[in-house]
Amino acid sequence: MRMTKAFIPTLREEPKEAEVASHLLLLRAGMIRKLAAGIYSVLPLGKRVLRKVETIIREEMDRAGAHELYLPAVQPAELWEESGRWAKYGKELLRFQDRHEHWFCFGPTHEEVITDLVRREIRSYRDLPRCFYQIQVKFRDEVRPRFGLIRGREFIMKDAYSFDRDEAGAEQSYKVMVQAYERIFTRMRLDFRMVQAEAGNIGGNFSHEFMALASTGEDLILVCDACGYSASQERAEVGKTELPSPGEEKEGPRERVATPGQRTVEEVCRFLGVEPRNLIKTLIVQVQGEPRAVLIRGDLEINLNKLQRHLGAESIELADPETIERVTGAPVGFAGPVGLSLKILADQSIRGIIRGVTGANAADFHLINVKIGRDFPEPEYGDFRLARGGDACGKCGKTMREIRGLELGHTFKLGVKYSQALRANYLDPQGKETLMVMGCYGIGVTRALAAIVEQSHDQDGIIFPLAVAPYQVIVVPVEMADDQIREKSEEIYEKLTEAGLEVLLDDRSERAGAKFKDADLLGIPFRITIGKRNLANGQVEIKRRGEKTAQLEPVGTACARIAELISAAWAAEKPGDKN
User: Fold this and answer.
1) Does residue 273 carry a pLDDT above 50?
2) What letter would DSSP give residue 277?
3) Pairwise pLDDT comparison (352 vs 349), residue with the higher score
4) Both 110 and 228 in a single domain?
5) What is the reported pLDDT for 244?
6) How far apart are CA 16 and CA 18, in angstroms?
7) Whole-prediction pTM
8) What is the rounded distance in angstroms from the CA atom of residue 535 to the CA atom of residue 537?
9) What is the pLDDT of residue 205?
10) Per-residue pLDDT at 401 exceeds 80
11) Is residue 183 part of a domain?
């Protein structure tokens, strides 16, 4: 491709809207353009990269035994009502009516659609297991889209769905897909980690996220270097908190003190001169409509997902101010466990506190010197906190540390959540109706592009791995007006193209400096520079993107040398087979 014929609208200035490196560089390299909040056009150069990302995904999905299909993006409300998600999914679901006033949604995911297809077409155990996948546009109406392709509303996603006869088969399908994901992200040259995760709106009882490690990542990951445990912050298990040593604290008589207008942890602690870790927060939650109290240390945050799993509840949410006042007798900020006639659960972090500060269940009053077991009954303890760096590992008890990442993919063990709701049965060998056991596996395709750039760039631009680079080689004539330089550049371009390489010829009448800047910005792995001085000596310059030094090569062997370098690069990028 010649740059005079290509559409690569690079930018010299940094776009003000860009917040992270990938957003900035994809805009500057002319790969994406914003249409609306969280909605981007992908331009030709970016599309070439996406196509290579999709090719890697397709090859590994096919290798894993999945069958590609295409499912409708527009989905009828009736299917979502069958699964129970039409009302539960929330405002991220883009709902609309057609001319007949029938309700539809633009698919954020396709569990209902694929399950409906399979329940109609597969009836016998002989037809299982099966796995299907597609690569398609999704839409989720994010409340705060940001970071370009990292958190968009419209995006390209690969989603796959497995159907098995039983849990043992589903476990094997899950293992095969995890191995495929490891190969996919390795081939993309991503530094990633698989972590335990929450299932979220998709559901199921077990899931993993594949995270690209990046300092600008949206997600916090907790890692234990001692035992290798890793999980998303929402899922990470925290080990038991050490109790205060005997005599370390002396209990005192409980007192009721006035705290006018002091509602938040910060305000109460400042007013009473105590540390947040000595304050016992009392949160009122609704567990399937029933109010309960949950206690947690003042310097920690509650994790409703853990609480929901502990209780085996279908839904849980923080109570509204009206409910809080009705069950505690006090406005928000003054609830406490003493005298509270609700079932009380507590995070293990408060275990052993004997001089705690709590709300007094009365406006503008708190209690001090509160002792668990004396002033209110011992609650039901559990791990209900949002984990953070420095916490004890829930597996081995050693200290966990924090790293940040971008979610690349998510794998779910769905069990019979959807097959039961949509009655996706098959006949077993005895002719008995049996529920199919499902798995679900997603990869953010456009997000993978952003993650590659986020991890692989320098101050000059993108550094694409060879496997996903838009072109393998860029040929840069220093002066297109010079006949000898132009002719030799054309000759090299033609030879490399005929050899089957992907080549971009910068045949623009630009200054050499501008051409070099664009070559670095675009991240093309190899650059051949044809200049007057080197050409006079029968040489051209070859440089690998990201390396500081270039090498001179005789003109006659330059094409062969580039082919050797690309072959060596391919070999270095080839992943090991984990099957």
Assistant:
1) yes
2) G
3) 349
4) yes
5) 56
6) 6
7) 0.88
8) 5
9) 67
10) yes
11) yes
CA distances from 75 to 94, 110, 120 (A): 11, 9, 17
Residue that has been written with the tokens 């509204």 in this structure: 320
Q: Are residues 358 and 293 in the same domain?
A: yes
Within this chain, do residues 407 and 361 fall inside the same structural domain, yes or no? no
Q: What does DSSP assign to residue 354?
A: S
Is residue 416 within 8 A of residue 436, CB to CB? The reply is yes
Percent of the chain with pLDDT over 70: 96
pLDDT digits (tens, 9 = 90+) for 462-501: 999 999 999 999 999 999 999 999 999 999 999 999 999 9
Distance CA 435, CA 417 (A): 10
Is 134 in contact with 71 (CB distance < 8 Å)? yes
Give the tens place of pLDDT for each residue, 256-266: 999 999 999 99
Would you give the DSSP letter of residue 349? G
Q: Which residues contact 346 (CB under 8 A, 6 or more apart)?
A: 294, 295, 296, 372, 379, 380, 381, 382, 384
Per the CB < 8 A criterion, the answer to whether 491 and 540 are in contact is no
Among candidate residues 293, 283, 276, 469, the one with its CA nearest the CA of residue 376:
293
Residue 24 counted as domain residue: no
Residue 454 and residue 408 in contact, taking contact as beta carbons nearer than 8 Å? no
Which pLDDT tens digit goes with each residue over 173-223? 999 999 999 999 999 999 999 998 887 666 666 789 999 999 888 889 999
Are 140 and 223 in a shared domain?
yes
Same domain flag for 429 and 551: no
Q: Count the Cβ atoms, other than its own, within 10 Å of residue 363.
A: 16
The verdict on residue 106 lying in a domain is: yes
360 in the same domain as 308 = yes
Contact 73, 43 (CB under 8 A): no
DSSP 155: E
Alpha-carbon gap, residue 280 to 66, rounded angstroms: 51
- CATH code of the domain covering residue 71: 3.30.930.10
CB within 8 A of 241, min separation 6: which ones? 348, 349, 351, 392
Query: Could you list the residue range(s) of the whole structural domain that residue 338 is in?
Result: 255-382
Q: Give the Cα separation of 285 and 294 in Å (integer).
A: 7
Q: Are residues 374 and 414 in the same domain?
A: no
Find the mean pLDDT for residues 239-250: 63
Q: What total number of domains does the chain contain?
A: 3
Whether 521 and 460 have beta carbons less than 8 Å apart is answered as yes
Residues 218 and 319 in one domain: no
**Residue 368, token pair as written in the block:** 């001090």
- Classify residue 429: in a domain, yes or no: yes
Q: Distance (Å, rounded) from C-alpha 293 to C-alpha 377? A: 13
Residue 578 pLDDT level (bands cut at 50, 70, 90): very low
